[in-house]
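re the bet — no i am not wrong, look at it urself. input seq straight from the record:
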Amino acid sequence: MVAGCIKIELTQFYQGTTILMTDQSPRNNTDTIDTQTLQRQDNHFVHPWESMYKLGANERTIITRAEGIYVYDSDGNKLIDAPAGMWCVNVGYGRREIADAMARQAVEMPYFSPFSMGAQPSSVLAERLAALAPGDLNHVFFTTGGSTAVDSALRFLGFYNNFLERPEKKHIISRGDAYHGSTYLSASVSGKARDKEFMDMERDFIHLISSPNPSRRPDGMTVEQFGEAAVKELEDKILELGADRVAGFIAEPILASGGVVVPPPGYHKACLEVCRKHDVLYISDEVVTGFGRLGHVFSSEPVFDIVPDMITCAKGLTSGYAPLGALLISDRLLEQVKGEEDEASFSSGFTYSGHPVSCAAALANLEIMERENVLEHARDVAPYFMDQLKTLTDLPLVMEVRGVGLMASVVCGIPGKESLELDYEIGNRIDKHCQRLGLLVRPIYHMCVMSPPLIITRPQIDQMVGILRQGIGLATDDLKAEGLWG
């Protein structure tokens, strides 16, 4: 694996049988894998968003290997990974350069204490990200992922205003349909109501305004008018709370897990202007949109014409090969909290901040993106991707196709019938049929979310959309046969 001289041996246990796997092992070892045994073992793993009712009785698909835009399950089936893992495998699977960089770093120096020392991978990556970021966002606070990056940004808001002796300026505004993470604060600023059931959230200083989803605008209202109303709602909320009490506004450029909600043109720039007017800091959550999903390393400036005060990122930073997140902070903000010698410390951080193996993965990932013109390719195929998905609107179950770049949502439903139970039924049926046909989709209720690896080609897009068309058609047949349609 490393310069051809280090062989990595992985011992795996299936049904009590030890299998030795090396870099020379056969790529497909499904003959030795017992899917039912793995599914039983997997039921000891409490997964994210685990249904307590189904706990211990799931029969999840077991993924055993991956290459390019494809994953392979334990039964040997080849599947297009339309969600790119979890919005994150941007350069695709099987990238030996990233694996080699990680292995080399693990041998040379697998860990350092970020609380007291520096290291080459994190130092080089911090400078690289500062150079790629817009405006004066020249300092990087490394985290373990997207949730902790958002959490760190929200904690910095409090630190910043405490230092400036503005202890009342702590309120934070977010939006309906937003998803910002799973820590206490990042979950609190998330706006997906169904995710908040049975979970405690911070409510005293967190405030949600409406989702900027143009599809929900009132009848007779133009998209432009809806955008103006959405911006006005933000300003009205600031004025209601008092500008001297509002610390920040956090926004995903595209609301990803909320269903790939694309705000009206000019929305973000107008929101930033409102924030500047009232001395409210603007946090751009680019955990999903960063590193090529919209064709740029960061989408804030080139796509939405804004330079925020802070940017959070993760996912595509390493293309999912290792956990890593980052918070980029404006020089202007940091200058204001320098103070006198040893006056204040931002007392936040993680054991694995700037982890050298993760940073090595990120650097190798960025090198691949640059060398192979991945961002240019993403910008080139994105219009074709959206055009092909929009051909699905001729299907009676498809209500809307929306998206931008290489992220989209195919919204399905039965006209005149709306219920949470039916939403789940529609999404799960489409997912089941598509998987049988060779495609992984991510059903978010009744929405099929697509965010494929950025290396996807036009013929692969055709294949993906073709399978999705079949899957939606078969799901429609099911609904009609069971009397749920019409």
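see?? Residues 121 and 359 are 5 Å apart (CA to CA). told u. also Residues 61-91+373-481 form a domain with the Aspartate Aminotransferase, domain 1 fold (CATH 3.90.1150.10). so pay up
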